[in-house]
Design a protein that fits this description.
Main location: membrane
Shape: globular
CATH class: Mainly Alpha
Organism: Lentibacillus amyloliquefaciens
CATH architecture: Up-down Bundle
Largest sheet: none
Number of strands: 0
Keywords: Cell inner membrane, Cell membrane, Membrane, Transmembrane, Transmembrane helix, Transport
GO molecular function, one term: lactose binding
Number of helices: 15
GO cellular component, one term: plasma membrane
CATH superfamily: MFS general substrate transporter like domains
Order of helices and strands: HHHHHHHHHHHHHHH
CATH topology: Growth Hormone, Chain: A
Helix content: over 70%
């Protein structure tokens, strides 16, 4: 298979998986509200996903590194996605939704990280920008959010499983055509994982970014409910996601032009500052159109932050442990951060409303950005001293 054909399959995987992901991120809180759950209960359900991710992502990352394959782990996870989603969407009681949701997220949560890990490796092998590959995930996310938002406004939120299964099936089909990774080394052993756990710069970095990633995950979970609080509907939620992810796709597509000009941590700190400003502006909104008009900041925040952080993590860890290291990063970004954000966010929006929630997010982002600035300053000084 030619490089062009293999890249097309990879881009289609990212497109279709993120098209399914937008259905969950954008509309699951509204679907759960339709099922009769309140904000706090919705927070519990949304926290199950990150909880499963903390277990699933390192597990599947380890299996990928041990058997030196991303493709076949993806096939298992996407097959599990299709089967478990059917069960998950049939549940009605809170306990049943929580249990089925854990199984569902156990298979779905590693797919994005594994796809991005494969994309990062293919980009390195072909000497091209990872952003040009990853932007197809954003395009799938953007198109799905806009189209599905309009469909669910007309048909009803209760039918969201059908577009989910449609895009999930496409993801499974194109995965069979992927070019797998080639790692010329011995299979990873459990002892090698200790090297990651003993990598202090890596662990400190993951801790500091959590103050920012938590705010991102909280907004992902509750922006739909906030827009509805301000008087919007599913269609406006879809438009908000479309604008946000379209700007993200543009940032990814142009990454090769801006990404290498400065130290990676400078981009991360810049994105953290913009995150803080963004959340404070959201907190002051009084109309859903205010949120929609500010959604272009999603690309500048998440797009820049994610690309720079993934690149920085890649530099901190050995190639043999790339999948495991990337999924540890994913476990923090979408796992631990998601649990904290879902539980606290659900309670805050239930008790005090979306404005207060976003003000808290603004302060958290500012704290995380300050920590990262100190981290970068100390590392730079040590490098100058030759430590």
């Amino acid at each position: 298979m030619s490089n062009a054909q293999s890249l097309t399959s990879l881009k289609m995987l990212l497109f279709s998986f993120h098209a399914t992901n937008t259905i969950i991120l954008s509309f699951l809180p509204l679907y759960l509200e339709y099922k009769g759950l309140n904000g706090t209960e919705i927070g519990w359900v949304l926290a199950v996903g990150p909880l499963a991710a903390i277990i699933a992502q390192p597990f599947w990352g380890y299996m990928s590194d041990k058997y030196k394959t991303v493709k076949y782990v993806l096939l298992i996870c996407i097959s599990g996605l299709l089967v478990s989603s059917v069960v998950f969407f049939q549940m009605n009681s809170l306990i049943a939704i929580l249990l089925a949701g854990f199984v569902f997220y156990f298979f779905t949560s590693p797919i994005g990280g594994l796809g991005d890990s494969l994309g990062q490796r293919r980009a390195d092998d072909l000497n091209i920008s990872f952003g040009t590959i990853r932007t197809w995930g954003s395009i799938g996310f953007a198109i799905s959010s806009l189209v599905i938002g309009q469909i669910l406004t007309a048909a009803g939120i209760e039918y969201m499983i059908w577009p989910y299964l449609f895009f999930g099936t496409i993801a499974l089909i194109v995965t069979f055509k992927l070019t797998d990774v080639k790692v010329e080394s011995d299979p990873v052993q459990l002892g090698d994982i200790k090297k990651l756990l003993g990598n202090k710069p890596f662990l400190l970095f993951l801790f500091f970014i959590m103050f920012i990633t938590m705010t991102h995950r909280t907004s992902d979970s509750f922006i739909g409910l906030y827009i509805k609080q301000l008087g919007g509907n599913e269609g406006l939620v879809g438009v908000a996601w479309f604008i946000g992810v379209a700007s993200e796709a543009l940032v990814f597509a142009l990454a090769g032009r801006w990404f290498r000009n400065y130290h990676t941590l400078i981009f991360i700190i810049f994105a953290g500052i913009v995150y803080s400003v963004r959340w404070f502006l959201y907190a002051a909104a009084s109309d859903p159109l205010h949120i929609i008009s500010l959604q272009f900041l999603h690309g500048i925040t998440f797009g820049v932050f994610y690309l720079a952080a993934l690149d920085y993590v890649t530099r901190l860890i050995p190639r043999l442990l790339q999948s495991t290291g990337h999924l540890m990063f994913y476990a923090v970004f979408f796992g631990i951060s998601g649990i904290i954000g879902s539980l606290l966010g659900g309670a805050l929006i239930d008790s005090y409303g979306g404005g207060t929630l976003y003000a808290v997010l603004g302060f958290s982002s500012a704290i995380g950005t300050l920590f990262l600035t100190i981290y970068h300053t100390m590392k730079t000084r040590r490098q100058i001293r030759g430590i």
